[in-house]
Amino acid sequence: MVYKWLINSLNALVPPRCALCGTAGTPLCPACETDLPRQLHSCRRCGLALELDALTRFCGECLQTPPHFHLTLSPYAYQPPISHLITGLKYQRRLSLVPVLAKALAEHVEQHAADVDALLPVPLHASKMRQRGFNQALELARPLSRRFGIPIMHELERHRATEAQSNLHANERQKNVRNAFRIKQPFDYQRVAIVDDVMTTGSTANEIAKLLAAAGVEEIQIWCVARA
Questions:
Q1: Considering only CA atoms, which of 103, 115, 97 is closest in space to residue 75?
Q2: Looking at the domain assignment, is residue 62 inside a domain?
Q3: Structure confidence by residue, pLDDT tens digits, 193-209
């Protein structure tokens, strides 16, 4: 809370500049926002990009081995310059980008008329939380919660510290997050959206979705700003 107060105070003294072009007055100017790489056609289940002329709504992997979640909503493809914004938020603590990214995600969710009972931001391990000072998934979930009137879940925790997924190959990522999460207390939500900044292979989301499904959740969605 103190950290957020300090950021807000500094923004009041020094007006924000566009994170991409440096234009004063906004964390992301309208021109740069227009240039962000929109996800035009993707697998309905996992969000993987598909060819624009593809007749199917599902990728081959999801047809053969569907994940434990049912729908992925992501407004952007994870490539420059959206990747620069997400890494700027996560590693350079540019919290001024949260409202911009959350707004884009919210508008994308509204376009697809998604409806859930609760939001579950991907939790960080306590050690990573102390190191980073904030959870970017939780920061994105908060404005979504206010906008849609949907509660945020806190019943799941990351009880095992893991190596950063970005350092690992796809098959290593699955092993890395296996049994890394656990449910702390029971809940009765039937439709849950897992919220995160970016989904790469989907290993983390699938591990969490597996737990939710075992706990009785009937519909599990992924809401992320960008999909690799």
A1: 103
A2: yes
A3: 999 999 999 999 999 99
Structure-token pair, residue 165: 């997924």
94 near 4, Cβ under 8 Å?
no
What is the token pair recorded at 192? 């849950």
Confidence (pLDDT) at 6? 52
User: How far apart, in Å, are the Cα atoms of 92 and each of 19, 86, 225?
Assistant: 11, 9, 17
Backbone angles phi, psi at 169, to 5 degrees: -80, 170
Q: Does residue 75 have a cis peptide bond before it, meaning omega lies within 30 degrees of 0?
A: no
* For range 121-131, the mean pLDDT: 94
Q: Rounded to a whole number, what is the largest CA-CA distance in the chain?
A: 55
Contact 85, 26 (CB under 8 A): no
Here the tokens at position 27 are 């964390």
- Is residue 3 over pLDDT 90? no
The CATH number of whichever domain residue 68 belongs to comes to: 3.40.50
Task: Quote the number of domains for the chain.
Answer: 1
